[in-house]
């Protein structure tokens, strides 16, 4: 392994050392290591165990760590030369790093972070900004910029960073790699410089889902369990409205991939603004304290503001004394945030804790053990280097509205690349409940290849704006039908579903939902016909088989009904309704 790492750097040295690639377009030098590394070193794994014991699980992999992780004998630099100057070398290595080395991986260096790991932009004037391999003219994202770049440039198999308010997720999105923010508190933060203890999470970058899962299981120290498929995949429609690129560029990819693996019936739509408004009442209480009146902001905006205030408050509590004594030269934007007067009363601190508790409960109740929430990772494509766009209120509000969901709730989130749009990387994020890390990693492993295939297809296709608008309108009408159905207004529901079918006639869910309303009215022939159409469009639509089975039973087609219930059971072996219906009919008619 030592020779492997050495050979890597020898090859780089032979081909690139001392050579700077100049491009007129970028007007900047691109270093041989893309500016990712702050320190090169080598931590070797222990010898392999003797047979018949299995080899170490991470054998053959190499990695880097962001410069917030302690490594014995090295000063942890925290992205600033003044911090490096005023601190002693670490006396022990972070347990997280040790666990990976003992698991068979080789650590080959430390990577650049934003100043004091505070920003999400990835720019550092002291050590220079790492070059984004996926879009060299654009920022790499931060705070764990160098770690993301090291993976994107294929220098390492994976890398470690820290995610407070997007420190893993943003660089993963901007550099076109996979980023994993685990559930808060499931991985030890010992031996890591804190930014905001209630938000900080050790995170991980990887180039492929297999490596992500392999490393993730070592970090999480999870026992073996049977892989489960999601029973609901919720697209947060209001979050997709925040995107600055066409929303169908991402949502259509997820929809197509979900249909292929799990069937269209798994797809659901959610408005998080409304959901959090009703489930997280302490958000408004906090802002009534801070602005002395009722807030007119959306719940997502409030959440973004609370997250930033919390980060600033905890950062100052931890590092304020050092900043006041050393007076480090900081980026103006970071300095403005850190030095802003921020007085938090004990009551406001307690309300913040209540918000975190309510958010975790709200997301856990929404997703349960088998749900995935789908949101854009970032609203904007990666901004250009030196752009002032990153300081605009719109950029900040849209970005943190998305990033604060996992940060405040503490739930786990994976950022997945989906190719390019206008020469910039595109990504999507999957979120699972707190503690659902293995379920999330398993789901990513299942759908990743399909997501990449559909991303290529959607990127190459040219959907007309009219077609996109029709699909969106159909979804809106379907939701009205669902509400009418819940209100037991069967005929009204049928009208809405019929309108949705006229707008988008190849959607199995619309036919299946209309069949459910027909069943309530006793229109069994129409219900059977709608279910048959739904099944022709989506052969994994469990609800369509169940509803057709019910319609056929009521029409006296008992053999066919048994076949429908039995096939629904094949698709979903734990479905009690299918099992009971099939058994009941067999006992009576066979």
From TrEMBL:
<dbReference type="InterPro" id="IPR036928">
    <property type="entry name" value="AS_sf"/>
</dbReference>
<feature type="domain" description="Amidase">
    <location>
        <begin position="55"/>
        <end position="212"/>
    </location>
</feature>
<keyword id="KW-0812">Transmembrane</keyword>
<dbReference type="Pfam" id="PF01425">
    <property type="entry name" value="Amidase"/>
</dbReference>
<keyword id="KW-0802">TPR repeat</keyword>
<keyword id="KW-0472">Membrane</keyword>
<feature type="repeat" description="TPR">
    <location>
        <begin position="508"/>
        <end position="541"/>
    </location>
</feature>
<feature type="transmembrane region" description="Helical">
    <location>
        <begin position="6"/>
        <end position="23"/>
    </location>
</feature>
<feature type="repeat" description="TPR">
    <location>
        <begin position="542"/>
        <end position="575"/>
    </location>
</feature>
<dbReference type="InterPro" id="IPR023631">
    <property type="entry name" value="Amidase_dom"/>
</dbReference>
<keyword id="KW-1133">Transmembrane helix</keyword>
<dbReference type="InterPro" id="IPR011990">
    <property type="entry name" value="TPR-like_helical_dom_sf"/>
</dbReference>
<dbReference type="InterPro" id="IPR019734">
    <property type="entry name" value="TPR_rpt"/>
</dbReference>
<protein>
    <recommendedName>
        <fullName>Amidase domain-containing protein</fullName>
    </recommendedName>
</protein>
């Amino acid at each position: 392994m030592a020779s492997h790492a050495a050979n890597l750097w020898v090859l780089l040295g032979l081909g690139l050392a001392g050579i700077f690639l100049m491009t007129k377009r970028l007007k900047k030098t691109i270093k041989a290591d893309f500016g990712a590394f702050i320190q090169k070193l080598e931590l070797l794994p222990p010898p392999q165990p003797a047979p018949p014991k299995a080899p170490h699980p991470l054998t053959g992999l190499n990695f880097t760590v962001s410069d917030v992780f302690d490594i014995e004998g090295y000063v942890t630099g925290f992205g600033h030369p003044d911090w490096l100057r005023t601190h002693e070398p670490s006396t022990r290595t972070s347990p997280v790093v040790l666990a990976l080395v003992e698991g068979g991986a080789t650590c080959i260096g430390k990577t650049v972070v934003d100043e004091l790991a505070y920003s999400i932009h990835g720019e550092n004037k002291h050590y220079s900004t790492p070059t984004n391999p996926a879009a060299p003219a654009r920022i790499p994202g931060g705070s764990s910029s160098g770690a993301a770049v090291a993976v994107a440039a294929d220098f390492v198999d994976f890398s470690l960073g820290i995610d407070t308010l997007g420190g893993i997720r943003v660089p993963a999105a901007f550099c076109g790699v996979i980023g994993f923010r685990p559930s808060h508190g499931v991985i030890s933060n010992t031996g890591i410089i804190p930014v905001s203890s209630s938000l900080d999470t050790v995170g991980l970058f990887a180039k492929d889902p297999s490596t992500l899962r392999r490393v993730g299981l070592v970090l999480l120290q999870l026992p073996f369990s049977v892989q489960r498929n999601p029973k609901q995949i919720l697209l947060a429609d209001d979050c997709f409205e925040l995107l600055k690129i066409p929303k169908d560029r991402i949502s259509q990819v997820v929809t197509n991939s979900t249909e292929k693996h799990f069937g269209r019936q798994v797809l659901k739509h959610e408005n998080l603004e409304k959901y959090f408004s009703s489930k997280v009442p302490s958000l408004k209480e906090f802002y009534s304290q801070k602005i002395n009146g009722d807030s007119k902001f959306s719940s997502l905006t409030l959440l973004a503001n609370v997250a930033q205030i919390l980060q600033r408050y905890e950062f100052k509590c931890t590092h304020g004394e050092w900043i006041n004594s050393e007076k480090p030269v900081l980026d103006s934007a970071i300095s403005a945030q850190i030095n802003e007067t921020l007085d938090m009363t004990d009551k406001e601190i307690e309300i913040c804790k209540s918000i975190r508790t309510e958010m975790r409960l709200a997301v856990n109740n929404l997703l349960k053990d088998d749900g995935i929430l789908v949101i854009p990772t970032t609203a904007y494509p990666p901004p250009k280097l030196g752009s002032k766009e990153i300081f605009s209120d719109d950029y900040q509000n849209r970005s943190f509205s998305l990033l604060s969901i996992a940060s405040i709730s503490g739930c786990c989130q994976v950022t997945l690349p989906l190719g390019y749009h206008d020469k910039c990387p595109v990504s999507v994020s999957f979120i699972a409940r707190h503690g659902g890390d293995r379920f999330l990693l398993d789901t990513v492993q299942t759908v990743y290849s399909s997501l990449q295939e559909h991303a290529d297809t959607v990127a190459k296709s040219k959907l007309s704006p009219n077609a996109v608008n029709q699909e969106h309108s159909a979804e809106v009408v379907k939701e009205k039908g669902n509400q009418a159905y819940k209100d037991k207004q069967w005929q009204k529901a049928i009208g809405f579903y019929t309108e949705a079918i006229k707008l988008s006639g190849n959607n199995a869910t619309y036919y299946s939902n209309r069949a459910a309303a027909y069943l309530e009215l006793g229109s069994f022939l129409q219900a059977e016909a709608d279910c048959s159409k739904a099944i022709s469009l989506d052969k994994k639509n469990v609800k369509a088989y169940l509803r057709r089975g019910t319609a056929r039973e009521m029409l006296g087609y008992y053999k066919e009904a048994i076949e429908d219930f039995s096939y629904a059971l094949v698709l979903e072996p734990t479905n009690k309704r299918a099992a009971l219906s099939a058994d009941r009919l067999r006992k009576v008619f066979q």
